[in-house]
Write a structure and sequence with these properties.
Mean pLDDT: 95
Pfam families: Ribosomal_L28
GO molecular function: structural constituent of ribosome
Organism: Saccharopolyspora aridisoli
Largest sheet: 2 strands, antiparallel
Keywords: Ribonucleoprotein, Ribosomal protein
Order of helices and strands: EEEEHH
Oligomer: single chain
Strand content: 35-45%
CATH class: Mainly Beta
Structural class: alpha+beta
Number of domains: 1
Family: Belongs to the bacterial ribosomal protein bL28 family.
Low-confidence stretches: none
Length: 78
């Protein structure tokens, strides 16, 4: 399963880790993705989402119904 937020679309960032001696090795920065259950009152059921912490803040601000409607418009499977 990929490390990707279903709400914001955040995915790992890639780059170099630079040591004190200035050696460079490839690394990746993973988003803080959590498995979270949300209650959908319109459908009277629970849904499970893999969301980043920024996605959780988005859901808190806009509401789960609005976020789910936008995800469905993008073609995301819920």
């Amino acid at each position: 399963m990929s490390v990707r937020c279903q709400v914001t679309g955040k995915k790992p960032g890639y780059g170099n880790q630079v040591s004190h001696s200035n050696r460079r090795t490839r690394r990746r920065w993973l988003p803080n993705v959590q498995n979270k259950r949300y209650w959908l009152p319109a459908e009277n059921r629970w849904i499970r989402l893999r969301v980043s912490t920024k996605g959780m803040k988005t859901i808190e601000k806009r509401g789960i119904d609005a976020v789910v409607a936008e995800m469905r418009a993008r073609g995301e499977r819920i």
